[in-house]
Design a protein that fits this description.
transmembrane helix; G-protein coupled receptors family 2 profile 2 domain-containing protein; 344 residues; transmembrane; membrane; single chain; Rhopdopsin 7-helix transmembrane proteins; three-stranded antiparallel β-sheet; 2 domains
Length: 344
């Protein structure tokens, strides 16, 4: 049985139009602004609020978003299927799926799973178990990509000259589909597990926004590109898909990095002070947990009350304090000093 989809006369769909070109140029301009912003953030990464955001991961997510966008433009024909853009395996599988969609999902998984590991499991975010869980959401995709080179274009994806588009073999196309679904499902589970995270941890709220946007975009994108196959050849559908990917990448990027970048540029000391107060609040909330229970203090807590304790904070800071007694804590008389590590 042939895996080809029916040939659709070109008169039934629209070739690249002015609307496509406008969308491409607007998107390119926005991505250029994003790249300038992330380079600016990397140059100034020693600023604690920026360092706490793990700028290198945001940069990876940005690159993945841009590749997803470019792969989408090639898949829908907005870039025209000429020259290198006829290599459908390169753009559809490697650029769009592997280093685009799946890499972006893996970054989201990494950041949320790291919070779950530290706050819920109370384990360090390192070691083979941690990295195996993260990489399992990305590594299968390159394996499927490599399989395409073994199986050949006719059994995976190839340029269909008569239709002037990239033709997927249904079996191969739907073999890739479960991977993003599994990633989104795991992200949903992480969001539910972290729903009661202390309010002082802004990271969770930001990651939740990233998840929701990614979910909406992927569902919309799948409906247009995967279910209504002909629709992705209509100009409105091409512009819609490109705009959705552009929107998803930029919402996540600016939600994560916008505040620290604005603070560093226009209110450096005030934003840093706000950041320090947030860390102090997080530390005090963490300290209060052993005493908040029906049975009072645990034996472990009793042993700690007379000993200095240390709290792990983002790089560049040390928390120095003595563990207060329950009376001191509830009465608000305990003190915690947050100091820059480089000042001793």
């Amino acid at each position: 049985m042939s895996t080809d989809e029916p040939v659709i006369p070109q008169r039934d769909w629209q070739v690249a139009t002015t609307a496509d070109h406008v969308a491409i140029w607007i998107g390119t301009g926005i991505w250029c602004i994003d790249v300038i912003a992330v380079v600016y953030a990397i140059i100034n990464y020693r600023y604690p609020p920026l360092k706490a955001k793990q700028v290198h991961l945001i940069a990876v997510a940005l690159v993945a978003s841009i590749l997803w966008w470019i792969g989408n433009l090639q898949a829908t024909g907005a870039l025209g299927h000429v020259g290198i853009f006829r290599i459908c395996l390169l753009w559809g599988v490697w650029v769009q799926a592997i280093f685009g969609v799946q890499l972006l999902l893996t970054v989201l998984v990494y950041r949320l799973y790291k919070l779950h590991r530290i706050l819920i499991q109370e384990k360090p975010a390192r070691g083979w178990q941690f990295w195996t869980t993260v990489l399992i959401f990305w590594l299968p995709m390159p394996i499927i990509g490599l399989a395409a080179h073994v199986l050949g274009e006719q059994r995976t994806i190839y340029y269909h000259a008569e239709n002037d588009w990239c033709q997927w073999a249904p079996i191969y196309k739907y073999a890739m589909l479960p991977l993003p679904i599994v990633g989104l499902s795991f992200l949903l589970w992480l969001n539910i597990a972290l729903r009661n995270t202390r309010k002082s941890f802004n990271e969770y709220r930001e990651q939740r926004i990233g998840f929701i946007v990614s979910l909406i975009v992927l569902v919309s994108y799948t409906l247009v590109d995967g279910v209504f196959v002909v629709a992705n050849k209509l100009v409105w559908a091409r512009v819609l898909q490109a705009s959705l990917v552009l929107l998803a990448g930029n919402i996540y990027f600016w939600v994560m990095l916008g505040g620290p970048l604005f603070g560093f540029t226009f209110a450096r000391e005030a934003y840093l002070e706000k950041f320090r107060k947030g860390l102090t609040l997080s530390a005090l909330n963490k300290l209060s947990e052993p005493w908040r229970g029906k049975t009072g203090m645990t034996n472990a807590t009793t042993r700690q009350t007379s000993q200095p304790s240390a709290l792990k904070l983002p790089d560049g800071f040390d928390a120095r304090f003595s563990m207060p007694s329950p009376t001191e804590f509830e009465g608000g008389t305990s003190e915690l000093r947050l100091m820059r590590a480089d000042h001793g």
